[in-house]
Amino acid sequence: MVNIRGTDWELKTCQVADSTSSMELTLWETYMEAVKTSESYTFTNLTTRNYNGKLSLTTTRQTTIEPLKTSLLSSTPRNIIPQTISINHLTASVEGAAVHIMKLCPKCHTLQQNLSPKDAFHRCQSCKIPRKGPSYLTKCNGTLTFKLGKEELALSISNSLLSTFIRNECNLNIMDKQEIEEFLLTTGPLTIQYTSENQITSLSKLNKTDQQQKTDEDSDSDEELCAIA
């Protein structure tokens, strides 16, 4: 996460390579999930950055990424060191939710200070163009709290994950902070993966089959305890 002029933006860095060499590529926002490790792609409209003498690539608003059916590499180049991240797993319902919402102009991407999700119309504070309220871009991130035994576990969730999860169920652009938090509190059991730094990397609803299996396991445990007693 980086903060640019008061707005939080997400990015990921990766290594791209061909048979000759490799280079770091920064994927911004919507491009973060467009590539997968060891797959090959055609990238267009990237731009270069030179920081402290190190040349790298970065996506732009005009970037396109197209997958290739055949791999460009038969093996990983020697100068690429694979990174491993410890991932934890959790299945639980949300006990607490604290969400932060940002509204951005769809044209100039300026953060809007006084725009409520319930406003029918709003004039951008930068480009001065009036637009329908729901047409403004919505970004949201926050912290979700879960029960972990007798303790509570607070996990950070990024805009890309939270927005995608909510949009599968609701219209995020017309929801306010409280509505989002109440939606998360009542959404039921979730399957979650998170890093050792307490950052959620994936979340999804527990499907009905898994819910029934978990209920059966809990029931079996209760019967065993009664038998022991």
Automatic annotation (TrEMBL):
Basic and acidic residues bias spans: 207-216
Residues covered by region (Disordered): 205-229
Residue ranges with Acidic residues bias: 217-229
Protein name listed in UniProt: Replication factor A C-terminal domain-containing protein
